[in-house]
Design goal:
Layout lengths: L1 H19 L9 H13 L3 E9 L5 E5 L5 E5 L4 E10 L30 E13 L2 E13 L3 E10 L4 E14 L3 E12 L19 H7 L3 E4 L5 E4 L5 E3 L2 H23 L3 E15 L3 E13 L8 H5 L5 E11 L4 E12 L2 E12 L3
Antiparallel strand pairs: 1-4, 2-3, 4-5, 5-6, 6-7, 7-8, 8-9, 9-13, 10-11, 11-12, 13-14, 14-15, 15-16, 16-17
């Protein structure tokens, strides 16, 4: 958090310096300076909040004949998403203006390294969602300053669907080749949980099997034998969770492993990764044809020798990369095709989304 505040302060200072010359030489007090700064920073920004929902998968009837015919119904609560945020990002030529932000928009161009205009842009967006009975928290926040020859960006991402969360800052030198293409190179710093760490590794036997019963006993589970071939498995609260080995291995043990691995990961401190980064941005737009593409590659990562360094789990260096493509072409006033998508792979964990299709309008 301290590092985040320092970077925010640095970006704020850059923004004030870039705008100060417009104020002239007339002295102004700190209160007026703050008002001017906030007005310039928030001008054209949009604050929004929205609630979206709908039914989830339909109820499912489950039948059992163990003690005669028994019927139970599995109900899945309705899906919903509560979104809120503030954004100040110039629209690219292919983006349309919505009357309102409803929280369901997917603006792939937000992930680009370079925005439509030079200067300061930002996005702070959060979402509480439930899908098919599972709750998620999604967040995407970033601050970006783009100049002719350099780029500074800080970002925080939490994707509950992809189970990825990290904080990233990057500082890059930018080389423009004309008005459409530019390359960049620099350094990136990422703060995250120690991805690659496997809490179950110490419980693997020499034959490759998992010593799950000993693990469960360490976690507070107990096993009772009645002396007549019967057996009971109890959880740490003393409740019976299984009365035979099949239920124990098929139902109780998966819960034990999931709870154990989550707890062990949460006990670890976050790690910081220093990497080299290189990338490109290309943007070309006309009324009937547009291409917007970007990419970043991290080919080298500093190894600090830490116990939970990803170098240890990966046995050396690895490639992290991200990129996106937005393409549209109108053959005539009726027929057009489009392709949009982005792909990310960090620490051998990938998440992506895309959209493609064809439109035909009858006049």
């Amino acid at each position: 958090m301290r590092k985040l505040l320092i970077v925010l302060l640095a970006l704020s200072t850059l923004h004030v310096s870039a705008q100060q010359s417009k104020l002239g030489e007339t002295p102004i007090n700190k209160e007026n300076k703050l008002k001017v700064y906030l007005k310039k920073t928030l001008k054209f920004a949009t604050f929004y909040g929205a609630i979206n929902g709908g039914n989830s998968v339909s109820d499912v009837d489950v039948y059992s004949v163990t003690n005669g015919l028994e019927t139970s119904t599995i109900k899945t609560p309705f899906d919903y998403a509560v979104s809120f945020g503030v954004r100040k990002i110039a629209r690219f030529g292919y983006e349309t203006r919505n009357a309102f932000y409803n929280g369901t928009e997917k603006s792939y161009g937000d992930a680009a390294t370079i925005g439509k205009v030079k200067g300061f842009e930002f996005l702070f967006e959060g979402e509480l969602a439930r899908q098919q009975g599972t709750d998620f928290i999604n967040q995407n926040h970033f601050l970006r300053y783009v100049a002719d020859s350099w780029i500074v960006k800080i970002e925080y991402l939490q994707d509950g669907f992809a189970d990825i969360e990290y904080f990233e800052a990057s500082q890059r030198y930018r080389q423009k080749l004309g008005n459409k293409l530019s390359f960049n190179v620099g350094a990136a710093q990422r703060l995250s949980e120690p991805y690659g760490y496997d809490p179950l590794e110490e419980w693997i036997l020499s034959n490759g099997n998992l010593h799950y019963t000993d693990l469960a006993i360490q976690e507070g589970y107990t096993i009772n034998f009645d002396g007549q071939g019967g057996i009971e498995y109890l959880n740490p609260s003393g409740n019976v969770v299984a009365e035979n080995t099949q239920i124990w291995e098929g139902v109780a043990i998966p819960t034990v492993l999931a709870n154990y691995t989550e707890r062990k990961r949460n006990e670890l401190d976050q790690t910081i990764q220093y990497s080299l980064v290189a990338g490109f941005d290309y943007y070309n737009y006309t009324k009937d044809f547009w291409v917007h593409s970007w990419g970043s590659l991290m080919p080298y990562h500093y190894n600090d020798g830490g116990e939970f360094s990803y170098h240890t789990y990966n046995k050396g260096q690895w490639l992290d990369y991200s990129g996106g493509l937005i393409f549209g072409y109108k053959f005539n006033k009726s027929l057009g095709v489009f392709l949009e998508g982005k792909y990310n792979k960090y620490w051998n964990r990938s998440w992506h989304d895309f959209s493609m299709g064809i439109n035909y309008v009858i006049f």
